[in-house]
Each structure stands twice: as structure tokens, then as C-alpha cells.
């Protein structure tokens, strides 16, 4: 659920359908890798999505593409309440940080959105490649 200003409130209903890449996210409890490293990367992804949600809105986007990705990420993780709150807080913090610094779509805002989009793409590929490789082992 979206609160005033575009930030998240934890949803009370079921999540939307999960896209194929998000559906392949591994269960962190089954991974051999450090859970804290996994959680740090997930938190960073939430921050990136919150930043992009704000930056795209001030630059004219009418949809909530990045917010929807956040909802799909939460659903794909089957996150418990504590993890959901942590991820929503990361999303909201970054959204609000950009709201404090950008009130209009400037060249700097456009450059920041492109940097964050590329970082998110790289991070999502890393999460899928490195963390799902362990779950594919027999």
C-alpha cells in the first residue's frame, strides 16, 4: 500500500503475480552463503527501488513501475514481517532522501536515476547468479 508521498506501508492483502526473474530468487535460509551478505544486498536493492520510484515520478512517469518491483521482490522472498519492515524502511528512506534533495527533474536527477537503474540491474543479476547457483546444486 502506498502512503502519502509515495512511500510504502506494508500491504495487508496478497501480493501481485511474480515475474519470472523474481520467481527464481532463492530462499536465503537454504543458502550456504552468509545471510547477512544476502540481506545487505536485498536492502540495497530496496534502496535503489525507492530512489528510482521517486526520481522517475518527479521526471514525469505516471506509473509506479519501481514500486511494483518492490512489491514483487517482497512477494518472491516470502519475507516474514521483520524482513518486510526492514525492506520497506530501506525503500522509504531512499525515497525520502531523494525527496529532500530533489524537487524537480534536473539533469542531476536524470543522471542519478540512470546510475541507480544500472546499479539495480547489476545487483539483480548478481543476486540471481550467485545466490541461485547454490540452490541448483544437487
What does this structure look like?
This protein has 138 residues and is mainly α. It has one domain (36-132). It is built from five helices and no strands. Helix 2 (35-58) runs antiparallel to helix 3 and helix 2 (35-58) runs parallel beside helix 4. The longest helix has 29 residues, at 107-135. The protein is globular, with a radius of gyration of 15 Å.
Could you tell me the mean pLDDT?
77
Strand content: under 5%
The low-confidence runs, each spanning 5 or more residues with pLDDT under 50, are: 8-26, 28-33
Oligomer state of the chains in this structure: single chain
Tell me the distance between the termini: 39 Å
Tell me the structural class. Answer: mainly alpha
Number of domains: 1
Instruction: Describe the main β-sheet briefly.
Output: none
Q: Number of DSSP strands?
A: 0
Secondary-structure element order, as H and E?
HHHHH
Helix content: 55-70%
Radius of gyration: 15 Å
Query: What overall form do the CA principal axes indicate?
Result: globular
- Please report the number of helical segments: 5
Amino acid at each position: 500500500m502506498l502512503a502519502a508521498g509515495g512511500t510504502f506501508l506494508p500491504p495487508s492483502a496478497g501480493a501481485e503475480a511474480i515475474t519470472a526473474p523474481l520467481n527464481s530468487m532463492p530462499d536465503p535460509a537454504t543458502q550456504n552463503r552468509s545471510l547477512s551478505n544476502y540481506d545487505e544486498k536485498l536492502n540495497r536493492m530496496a534502496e535503489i527501488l525507492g530512489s528510482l520510484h521517486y526520481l522517475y515520478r518527479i521526471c514525469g512517469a505516471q506509473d509506479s513501475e519501481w514500486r511494483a518491483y518492490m512489491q514483487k521482490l517482497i512477494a518472491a522472498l516470502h519475507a516474514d514481517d521483520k524482513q518486510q519492515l526492514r525492506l520497506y524502511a530501506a525503500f522509504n528512506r531512499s525515497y525520502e532522501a531523494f525527496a529532500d534533495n530533489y524537487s524537480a527533474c534536473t539533469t542531476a536527477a536524470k543522471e542519478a536515476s540512470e546510475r541507480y537503474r544500472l546499479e539495480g540491474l547489476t545487483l539483480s543479476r548478481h543476486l540471481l547468479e550467485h545466490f541461485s547457483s547454490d540452490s541448483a546444486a544437487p
